[in-house]
Amino acid sequence: MIKGHFFEEGKKLKYGMVGGGPGSFIGPVHRAAIAMNGQAQIVAGSFSPIYDETLMTAKELGISEDRAYRSYEEMAEKEAQRDDGIDFVSITVPNYLHYKVAKAFLEKGINIVCEKPLCFTPEEAKELMELAAKNDVEFMVTYTYTGYPMVREARNIVQNNTLGNIRLIIAEYPQGWLAEPIEKEGQTQASWRTDPKYAGI
């Protein structure tokens, strides 16, 4: 595992993923984004609380069965013990699990790339920050829209005062698939996203 510095020139990073199994929206997005520059390879995962789904996803991704874990706790424990353990973990579980999963990997000294939001409370964030510093671990949260050219252009327009004094901004992120209460039909992606105790507010 890389300590202190997240990336060493010329070395391909090994990563694992928690979440991102069948039906996941953001897991495949993380895998595609990480694959774009060819500098990291997925080698481990706990992709679902249903172990058969984890095994299926691992097989699809070319991951050996001994690195397809039943839980994130088992994954953090075993990967930290391996000489060829992961350099970082990508956390793509529902929002309410981010804190617990991140804490487990931080405690084992494993670098983290976490889907937003980081967690639900400032106290949780402070604890994770302190654990990362204590264990010399890199911790990144994927606020991906900050890198979009249109978002950067909008920022420049505001900073350059092109539009004058802005008093009100209205923004929307429409997702038509959530327009109907499909969570009542067992759609798990909708069920946690539409409940504030799981999605956050």
Task: Describe the 3D structure.
- 37% of the residues lie in helices and 14% in strands.
- With 201 residues, the chain is of the alpha/beta class.
- It has two domains: 13-142, NAD(P)-binding Rossmann-like Domain (Rossmann fold, 3-Layer(aba) Sandwich); 147-199, no CATH class.
- A five-stranded parallel sheet has the order 2-1-3-4-5, with helices on both faces.
- Helix 4 (98-107) packs parallel to helix 5 (122-134).
- The model has no long low-confidence stretch (mean pLDDT 90).
Core attributes:
alpha/beta, 8 helices, Rossmann fold, five-stranded parallel β-sheet, 201 residues, globular
At a glance:
The protein has 201 residues and is an alpha/beta fold. It is built from 8 helices and 5 strands. The chain folds into 2 domains: 130 residues, 3-Layer(aba) Sandwich (Rossmann fold), CATH 3.40.50; 53 residues, no CATH class.
List the helices and strands and how they pair.
Layout: E1 13-19, H1 26-35, E2 40-46, H2 51-61, H3 72-81, E3 88-92, H4 98-107, E4 111-115, H5 122-134, E5 139-142, H6 149-159, H7 188-193, H8 196-199
Parallel strand pairs: 1-2, 1-3, 3-4, 4-5
Helix pairs in contact: 4-5
The ordered string of helix (H) and strand (E) elements is: EHEHHEHEHEHHH
Task: Give the strand content.
Answer: 5-15%
**What is the CATH level 1 assignment of the largest domain?**
Alpha Beta
What is the total tally of β strands? 5
Order of the strands making up the biggest sheet = 2-1-3-4-5
Mind telling me the C-alpha Rg?
19 Å
Q: Any idea what the CATH superfamily of the largest domain is called?
A: NAD(P)-binding Rossmann-like Domain
Average pLDDT reading? 90
Kindly state the percentage of residues in helix.
25-40%
Q: The CATH topology of the largest domain, please? A: Rossmann fold
Q: What form results from the Cα inertia axes?
A: globular
pLDDT < 50 runs, ≥5 residues:
none
**How many domains?**
2
Question: Which structural class best describes the helix and strand composition?
Answer: alpha/beta
Oligomer: single chain
Q: Based on the coordinates given, report the CATH architecture of the largest domain.
A: 3-Layer(aba) Sandwich
Q: How many strands, which pairing sense, and closed or not: the largest β-sheet?
A: 5 strands, parallel
Question: How many H/I helices?
Answer: 8
Report how far the terminal alpha carbons are from each other. Answer: 35 Å
